[in-house]
Amino acid sequence: MTGFDDRERAFENQFARDADLQFRIVARRNRLVGEWAADKMGLTAEESDAYAKAVVQADFEEAGDEDVIRKLLGDLLSAGVEIDEAAVRAALDAKGVEARRQFIEGV
Questions:
Q1: Which residues contact residue 88 at a Cβ distance below 8 angstroms, ignoring those fewer than 6 apart?
Q2: What pLDDT, in 10s, does the model give residues 8-44?
Q3: Residue 27's Cα: distance from chain center in Å?
Q4: What residues contact 107, with CB distance under 8 A and at least 6 apart?
Q5: Domain 2-105 belongs to what topology?
Q6: The whole model's pTM is what?
Q7: DSSP 3-state helix, strand, coil percentages of the chain (rounded to 5)?
Q8: What confidence tens digit (pLDDT) does each residue in 41-98 have?
């Protein structure tokens, strides 16, 4: 039975590591897309940093990306940036690829 228990424990540990990595990638993606949006809104460096952190926090409101998309789209439109939901989703996808690449390269 210990062989089975060892494999089960190893699987659980791998699952936890994978979940942690995915969480970190999504958080980095959200930070990157927050910086992208801050640049579009013309925020200062300090404001950009605070805004990027706010985007990361917005992801904790509900499961999935809709909360982040809603925040980005609302803030961009409020700032007078002409953008649509498709462009925000495209930026989110692009920053997701960049975040994953950064983790792979150890940046």
A1: 69, 72, 73, 76
A2: 888 888 888 888 999 999 999 999 999 999 999 999 9
A3: 4
A4: 101
A5: Major Prion Protein (1.10.790)
A6: 0.84
A7: 80, 0, 20
A8: 999 999 999 999 999 999 888 888 999 999 999 999 999 999 999 999 999 999 999 9
